[in-house]
Amino acid sequence: MDLTGPVVGVLLAGGRSSRMGGGDKCLRPLGGEPILTRIIDRLGPQVSEIVLNANGDASRFAAFGLPAVEDSIAGFNGPLAGVLAGIEWVTANRPRTDYVVTVATDTPFFPTDLVQRFLAEANDAFKFLVAQSAEGTHPVVGLWPVKLAAELKASLERGDRKVTSWVRDHGAVDVFFPPVDVGGTQVDPFFNINKPEDLAAAEALIGLDAP
Fold first, then answer.
1. Nearest-angstrom CA–CA distance, 79 and 210
2. How big, in percent rounded to 5, are the helix, strand and coil portions of the chain?
3. List of residues 6+ apart from 95 with CB closer than 8 A
4. Residue 1 lies inside a defined structural domain of this protein
5. Three-class SS of residue 13?
6. Pairing of strands 29-30, 33-34
7. Which candidate, 204, 175, 180, 207, places its Cα nearest to that of 191?
């Protein structure tokens, strides 16, 4: 399969952030700017464009200049619903795009060659790929064939919400990513900010990375 065509990035920000006390954790500051700004700056050079999956009033993200799409399956059904929303936007607006790359908006240190590595693994065959590191598999970071949309929607309508089980059941292949260097510290590339102490740890790493 020719994978030289555009790949659209889908940022997953549709969760409730309950472990951070609610609100949009991607809008919390990290190193003097929103976490989301760091995510966009990191992914932007790797994809043709970026779509943001977020529920509720989209105006709170207007300053970022991205198309914002809500889950099409109501009820906060987790990251699978966000992936589907992104794929549906791509199908409607970019019909020549065969793949999307998904990234969680709480992973500020993901690899700058994420998409390149995925595409290198996906050449010459239909592939559904997800990221893996020394800490395990990260199923919300992946290269998703757009043609999975119908199966994904059917699963969500049946009540299937477990992203790890879903990607395994549908033949996802792990792609290993080594640690990344942040301020001289080796960090899991998919370090995610779930709780206030995670944000504090990321802030410390950003401080180490400052000139």
1. 32
2. 40, 25, 40
3. none
4. no
5. coil
6. antiparallel
7. 180
Number of domains in the chain: 1
**CB–CB of 25/14 below 8 Å?**
no
Query: 145 is written with which tokens?
Result: 């064939």
Within 76-135, strands assigned E span 99-104, 129-133
Q: What is the CATH number of the domain that holds 176?
A: 3.90.550.10
In a domain, 61, yes or no: yes
DSSP string covering 64-104 = G---EE--SSSS---HHHHHHHHHHHHHHH-TT--EEEEEE
Domain of 100 in residue numbering reads as 7-209
Establish if 153 belongs to a structural domain: yes
In a domain, 2, yes or no: no
Q: pLDDT in tens for each of the 211 residues of the chain?
A: 344 468 999 999 976 544 445 668 999 999 999 999 999 999 999 999 999 999 989 999 999 999 999 998 877 789 999 999 999 999 999 999 999 999 999 999 999 999 999 999 886 566 899 999 999 999 999 999 999 999 999 999 999 999 999 999 999 999 999 999 998 899 999 999 999 999 999 999 988 655 4
Q: Which H/E stretch holds residue 164?
A: helix 163-169
